[in-house]
Design brief:
Layout (H helix, E strand, L loop, with lengths): L2 H14 L10 E9 L10 E6 L9 E7 L5 E6 L6 E6 L6 E4 L6 E3 L2 E3 L9
Parallel strand pairs: 1-7, 1-8
Antiparallel strand pairs: 1-4, 2-3, 2-5, 5-6
Length: 123
C-alpha cells in the first residue's frame, strides 16, 4: 500500500541530488594573484573562467573574466556550471597559469601565484 509513494519519493530525492556539484548553478571564485618568487601582489592581471571541455591548458572558451585590483584581489562569478571550468590568469611579464576549479563548491577561494617570464620585456 505505501510502497509506490515511497518509491516515488525515493526517486525524486535521488533526482534532486547531484553529488558532483552544488545545488545552485551559480559559482563564485575569489582570491589573490601573487608573484611566486616574492609573494608580492600582481595588479591588473586578467583572470577568467574558461571551459576546456575536459582538456586543460590555456586554450578554451572564456565564460567570464575580470582584472585583479591594485591589491591583487579578484572576484569572479560564473552562472552555469557545465563542462570543465578552470581559472586562467595572464599578466604582463609572467607565464600564464591554468587552475582546474570544477563545480564542487558554490564559493571557492583560489589564490594563484605566477612565475616571472625571463623572456618577457620588462616594464
Amino acid at each position: 500500500m505505501y510502497r509506490t509513494p515511497l518509491k516515488l519519493a525515493y526517486f525524486l530525492l535521488l533526482l534532486g541530488c547531484d553529488s558532483t556539484g552544488p545545488k545552485s548553478t551559480s559559482l563564485l571564485f575569489d582570491g589573490t594573484v601573487t608573484e611566486a618568487a616574492t609573494g608580492g601582489v600582481i595588479a591588473s592581471a586578467d583572470v577568467s573562467v574558461r571551459d576546456f571541455g575536459g582538456s586543460y591548458g590555456l586554450v578554451g572558451k572564456d565564460l567570464q573574466s575580470t582584472r585583479t585590483s591594485s591589491q591583487g584581489r579578484y572576484t569572479l562569478s560564473y552562472n552555469a556550471c557545465a563542462g570543465s571550468p578552470a581559472l586562467v590568469v595572464y599578466a604582463v611579464g609572467y607565464h600564464p597559469k591554468s587552475v582546474e576549479v570544477g563545480c564542487k563548491a558554490e564559493r571557492q577561494a583560489v589564490d594563484i601565484s605566477l612565475t616571472r617570464d625571463p623572456l618577457a620585456p620588462s616594464n
